[in-house]
Amino acid sequence: MSQDDAITHAARLLAAHYGEDGAVIAIMRAAEAAALGDLDMADHWEAVAAAFEDPPAAH
Questions:
Q1: Which of 9, 23, 39, 51 is deepest in the core (most CB within 10 A)?
Q2: Burial 18-41 (b: 16+ CB within 10 A, else e)
Q3: Model's pTM, two decimal places?
């Protein structure tokens, strides 16, 4: 799975489970990862949160 696909997939799962609050969950996960020193994972969750602001175009 590509990085973009993983981000989209995570955003869709969070949206399905939490609705628009999924973005907040992603930000919390990014903060937790950063606090643990896992900056790559923090970047991933920040990108997931950003996907809520700019959803992919429908095909």
A1: 51
A2: eeeebbebbbebbeebeeeeeeee
A3: 0.85
Contact assessment for residue 57 and residue 42, using Cβ atoms and an 8 Å cutoff: no
Three-class secondary structure of residue 34 per DSSP: helix
Q: Which two structure tokens, joined as six digits, stand for 19?
A: 């609705």
Domain count, the chain: 1
What residue numbers bound the domain in which 15 lies?
Answer: 3-53
- At 20-56, the pLDDT tens digits run 899 999 999 999 999 999 999 999 999 999 998 876 5
Is 58 part of a structural domain of the chain?
no
Half-sphere exposure of 49 (CA within 13 A, CB side): 16
Within-domain flag for 25: yes
